[in-house]
Amino acid sequence: MGTLWSQESTPEERLPVEGSRPWAVARRVLTAILILGLLLCFSVLLFYNFQNCGPRPCETSVCLDLRDHYLASGNTSVAPCTDFFSFACGRAKETNNSFQELATKNKNRLRRILEVQNSWHPGSGEEKAFQFYNSCMDTLAIEAAGTGPLRQVIEELGGWRISGKWTSLNFNRTLRLLMSQYGHFPFFRAYLGPHPASPHTPVI
Ligand SMILES: *[C@@H]1O[C@H](CO)[C@@H](O)[C@H](O)[C@H]1NC(C)=O
Ligand SMILES: *[C@@H]1O[C@H](CO)[C@@H](O)[C@H](O)[C@H]1NC(C)=O
Ligand SMILES: *[C@@H]1O[C@H](CO)[C@@H](O)[C@H](O)[C@H]1NC(C)=O
């Protein structure tokens, strides 16, 4: 019985094995090619990512300007771990105040951008900034409107005792209006910063 079974079963088992041997080899080769291809793609992707992320070399004119500015304000004779302020800004006093100079440069740059006639996309941030700037610069319209817009704001915020129309202040409502509609935080803030004349002395 056993021999008969093994005799019967052996050719049946052998047939498909013999028939699929070239396929098995082909499958292995294809799998290997696929894995190698995937590895290659992955390596190329990694290489591309490492090439494109991280700091780029300083080549643009803006970057070169900034580099010159920082090199001119710092004092590289000072060890940065002992006195970082002097290392980074040691010579800034010889020139103008770096922050003030940067702020002035930024304002001039913004002004140049905003004064150029450009077709901004309606509703975009740029278009809103452009409209806002133009409405501030339109002194004729501001003069023509007179005190109306300001009185409207004062009344919306609860009135003014001097102007007569004063309603008792609803603190919550006024605070909500100020913060949501006017983007203004009415309380004072306290922070620690360097003294303008003596940068190593912190002041509140
Ligand atoms: C730079 O630092 C050195 C060492 O503290 C100092 O002797 C020198 O006067 C500093 N130079 C300037 C321009 O501040
Ligand atoms: C200081 O600022 C003024 C006006 O912004 C500029 O004309 C002058 O060249 C600056 N001085 C130095 C030393 O950078
Ligand atoms: C203002 O808001 C606070 C916190 O939500 C609440 O406790 C208080 O009763 C409110 N005051 C008034 C006058 O509505």
Automatic annotation (TrEMBL):
Pfam families: Peptidase_M13_N. GO terms for biological process: proteolysis. The chain crosses the membrane at residues 29-50. InterPro entries: Peptidase_M13, Peptidase_M13_dom_2, Peptidase_M13_N. Residues 80-202 form the Peptidase M13 N-terminal domain. The keyword Ion transport does not apply. This is Kell metallo-endopeptidase (Kell blood group). One of its GO terms (molecular function) is metalloendopeptidase activity. It comes from the Eukaryota. Keywords: Membrane, Transmembrane, Transmembrane helix.
